[in-house]
Amino acid sequence: MFKIGIIGCGRIVEEGHAPAFKELIKDVNVVALADTAIERCEKIGGILNVDRAHWYTDYTEMLKKEKLDFVDIALPHFLHEKVVIDCANAGVNIISEKPLATNLKEVDHMLKAVEKNEVILAVLHNYRYQPAMKKAIEITKAGVIGTRFIIRSEGLGGSHYAGTGAYDPDWRTKQNMAGGGCLIDNGYHNIYISRELMGADVVSVYARVNTYYHKIDVDDSAFLLLKHSNGGTTSIQIAWAVKAGGQGVNEVHGKLGSIFFGREGKPLGVFLNEKGTWEYPDVSAIPQNSFTGIFQDIFYAVEKGEKVPTDGYEARRNLQIIMAAYESARKEKVVKV
Asked: What's the rounded Cα separation, in Å, for the pair 192 and 234?
């Protein structure tokens, strides 16, 4: 059983990580919590039955006093670099929320510390584990819809994912804390999902990134065209600027068929060109909480001595594409990645 210490006990831990750890009670034991706001330790401690004696307002104390197999880091982006390096230097394996950092230089510092100390670094690309998405990835990898050539990924909303009042609910809207806006936060997911579903990496990006509606110093709207190494194209549209909400669109088109998410009220629909019919795969057996699935795969990989689902280098690659998109928007031209 792995002993876990959580660093950062905010909303994403309360709504995602903690419920996942409760589901994996046979495999993991959360033994310690660290957050600058003690009331957040109290909240998460109540959910996970972590005794008050193991709550810390300084994570470095936790690293000194607790015997941990992993830390789970869920902090604002700008704090990741120092915390990851401190944990690596303490010889503790690391699970981190995405993005790994606000820029590539910070990531490289982290990777150097991880290599030097020979610890594991896994990054939570958890949308791959949403039930319909997990099944769709399996279908594409099996070649059911053939070579993919178009992906549409569109989600327009009216605001960011707010943090808890114990810290700063709006840190995602501040450049010095988040490193960007809806693109680095929401769009990060769209990009790694498109790479997975296309089965080919991104080789260039053209982007329009703007702040249309909110009075914030980060982007609230982003529109991307990604060219993949197989010649395929992904279109991504994301926003915090549309109060009414937009029509969600998630489609994958291949030479043998197509995949739609949310068609006719079903989580997943598969159209086969040769048959001219729709099929609706059952996804009910897949864990509903995407964090449960990715945590499960991380711990399984470690037990077997295998590579974790998303290591630091894969996370760096995804952030590199994000940075290229911001550059494309500034220069108003296609940027190779």
From this structure: 11
pLDDT number for residue 213: 97
Tell me the pLDDT of the chain averaged across its residues. Answer: 98
Give the mean model confidence (pLDDT) for residues 262-291: 97
Average pLDDT rounded to a whole number, residues 57-63: 98
The pair of three-digit structure tokens given for residue 226, joined into one six-digit string: 């990604």
Is 73 in contact with 97 (CB distance < 8 Å)? yes
User: By three-state DSSP, how is residue 68 classified?
Assistant: coil
Q: Where are the alpha helices (DSSP H) in the chain?
A: 11-12, 18-23, 38-48, 59-65, 80-89, 104-117, 131-141, 175-178, 182, 188-198, 290-304, 312-331
The reported pLDDT for the residue numbered 2 is 98
> Residue ranges of the domains in the chain?
2-125, 127-286+314-336
Please name the fold of domain 2-125. Answer: Rossmann fold (3.40.50)
- Residue 33, φ and ψ in degrees, nearest 5: -135, 145
| Check whether domain 127-286+314-336 has CATH 3.30.360.10, yes or no | yes
Count, residues in the chain: 337
The rounded distance, in Å, linking the Cα atoms of 76 and 160 is 13
Residue 153: what are its φ and ψ, rounded to 5°? -140, 100
